[in-house]
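Give me structure tokens for this 66-residue protein.
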Amino acid sequence: MPEQEDVQYGTYRCPVCSHRDGAEIRRGDAVGLIRCSYCDTSLELTLRSRDPVRFAVQVAEEHATR
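Here you go.
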């Protein structure tokens, strides 16, 4: 499990079901792959702003594992 300093926490809104949730991506990663916690769609997250942390999100071409 990554240490707190190694991850960036932020919020996103699923473009499929509009569910809003929080997620973490590793600080060094350009893109984070997750699944929507509501509709299970694979999503790509990218950092949009740092204060407060918000992610830009789009449907992923590959399946997310988490």
